[in-house]
Amino acid sequence: MIEIRGLKKFYGSLEVLKGIDLDVPKGEVLSVIGASGSGKSTLLYCINGLEPIQEGSVKVDGTDVHAKGTDINELRQKMGMVFQQWNSFPHLTALENVALAPKIVKKKSRAEARDIATRQLQHVGLGDKLNVYPSALSGGQQQRLAIARALAMEPDYMLFDEATSALDPELVGEVLDAMRLLADEGMTMICVTHEMGFARDVSDRVTFFHEGILEEIGTPAEIFGAPKSEHLQKFLSSIR
Amino acid sequence: MFDYNFHWRPVMKSLPDLLEAGLVTLQVAALSMIIGIVIGLALALIRMHMRGPVKWLASAWVELARNTPALFQLFFFGFGLGAVGIHMSPYVIVLSALSFNCAGYLAENFRGGFQAIPDTQLRAARSLGMTVWQSYTRVIIPQVFRIVYHPLTNQIVWAVLMSSLGMLVGFRELSGETQALASRTYRIFEYFAVTAVIYYVIVKIILGASRLLAARLFRY
Ligand SMILES: Nc1ncnc2c1ncn2[C@@H]1O[C@H](COP(=O)(O)OP(=O)(O)OP(=O)(O)O)[C@@H](O)[C@H]1O
Ligand SMILES: [Mg+2]
Question: A191 and A30 in contact (C-beta within 8 Å)?
C-alpha cells in the first residue's frame, strides 16, 4: 500500500505539488492523467525518493520514503520504475542490463541473475534478443527491456512515467500489451499516461492532475463518463 | 664538408642498458597514468558536484596543469619543493610531475565525458536500488571510459614522451640513461638516434595495444 499525505514539492520557489493526498492499495492499477507540467512525473519521483519533498509524507508498506533513517536503496527494490526516455544501459547487452541489479543489489549469483534476466526478457517478448546491445533495439523493444529490467528486482509496485509517449505510434501497442499483461497478473501499478484507451480499459481508478493539485479521482467510468471538474472536462475535450 | 664518421658499435653494446631504461620510462608513464586517472576522476567529480574551497583547489590544479609548461611543473616538484626543504628522489619527482600533469588533462576529458551521459542514466540506476557508488562504477563510469578512451591513449603517449624531461632532474629513464652513456663515449648522435627509435617503437606498441584493447572492450 502506498499512502501519500499532504505532499508538497517545490523546485526552488516553484510549487509543483500543492498538497497531495492519495492511497494506492495493493493490486490496484491507477492511471494518472493531466496536462503537461501538472506534476505527474514529479509525483512518481517523490514516491520512489528520486526527488526530495518539502512537506507531507509518502509511505510504502508503512515505511516513510523520505524519513532520515530509511534505507532508500532497499525500499526502491520494491518499486520498479519505467521512464519516458528510454534509458537502457548502452554498454550492456539486453541480458546484462536486466541481470545487473539482481547481481549487485540483491547479491544473486551470476547464474541466478542470468536466469532471472532470461525469464524476464522472455516474458516481455525479447527472448531472442538476449545478447543484443540496446543500440540494435527499437524504441519499443528498449521500453520492454526497461520493463523487464525493473521486474527482475521482483518489485511489489511498478511506476510508469509515460512509457509510450516517446515512441513511434506503431511501437506503442507492444509496450502497452506488456503493461496490460502485468496488470492482469495483479501487479500494483501507477501509470502516468497520455493513452486514454489504456487508462480507460486497464485501470481500476484514474486520477486527474491540474497544476500540482489532485483535482479528481474515480473509476474510469466516472472520470471519462461523468467528469465533474471543469478543468477535467476541458482536458478531455482537448485530447478527443 | 660533412666528415662525421658514424660509429654504431658503442651504442649497440649499450642496447641492453637502453632497453632497460626504456622499461623504466614505461613504468613511470604507466604509474603516472594510473594515478592521473584516479585523481583526474576525482577532480572532475569535485568540479561538477562541489562548491567552495575544495572546488577552487581542484580548478586551480586543472588550470595550472593545462596552462603552464610541463617543464616548469617538473622543476616545481624538483627544485621548487627542494627550495622549501622537501627533497624527493628523481623518480618520485618525475612521477609526481607526470601524475600532476595527467590528472589535470584527464580531469577535463572526464568532465566532458560525464556531461555527455544523460541524467536519466543515473536515475534509472538509482531506481533499481543501486547506491550512488554502484551507479557510478557500474553504469556511468564505464560509459565515460569509452568516451575518454582515445584521449586517454593520447595521454599515455604524452606521458612517455614527457618523461624524457626527467633527465633534467637527474632521472635515469631512457633519455637520462642515453645522455649518460653518450657523454661517456662522445657518440652523441648515434645514441640519441637509437633512443629516438626506441621511443618510436614504445609509442607504436602502446597505440597498437590500445587499438586491440578497444576492440575487445567496446562491442556496443
Ligand atoms: N528538475 C526540475 N527543476 C525545476 N523545475 C522542474 C524540474 N522538473 C520539473 N520541473 C517543473 O515542475 C513542473 C512539473 O513537472 P513534471 O515533469 O512533473 O510535469 P508532468 O506533469 O510530468 O508534465 P509532462 O506531461 O510534460 O511530462 C513543470 O513546471 C516543470 O517545468
Ligand atoms: Mg512528465
Answer: yes
Average pLDDT over every residue of B107-132: 95
CATH of the domain at A41: 3.40.50.300
Residue A61 lies in a domain: no
Structural domain of B41: 14-217
| pLDDT (mean) for A219-224 | 96
| Separation CA B163–CA A191 (nearest Å) | 59
pLDDT band (50, 70, 90) for residue B186? confident
The number of angstroms, rounded, from the C-alpha of A121 to the middle of its chain's C-alpha atoms is 18
What nine digits make up the cell of A4? 501519500
Q: What is the pLDDT of residue B219?
A: 82
Cβ contacts from A onto B, under 8 A: 67
Cell 587499438 locates to: B211
Q: Look up the pTM and report it.
A: 0.86
A61: left (phi over 0), alpha (psi -120 to 50) or beta: left
CATH code of the domain covering residue B19: 1.10.3720.10
Is A65 part of a structural domain of the chain?
no
Residue B1, pLDDT > 70, answer: no
Out of B120, B139, B142, closest to residue A85 by CB: B120
Give the torsion through C-alpha atoms of A161, A167, A173, A179, to 10 deg.
-20
Phi, psi of A158 (to 5 degrees): -125, 130
Task: Work out how many domains chain A is built from and give that number.
Answer: 1
> Is B151 buried (19+), middle (13-18) or exposed (0-12) by CB count in 10 A?
middle
Least confident of A186-200, B115-129, B158-172, B198-212: B158-172
**A8, A9, A13, A16, best to mutate for ligand 1 pocket (most atoms within 8 Å of CB):** A16
How many distinct structural domains can be found in chain B? 1
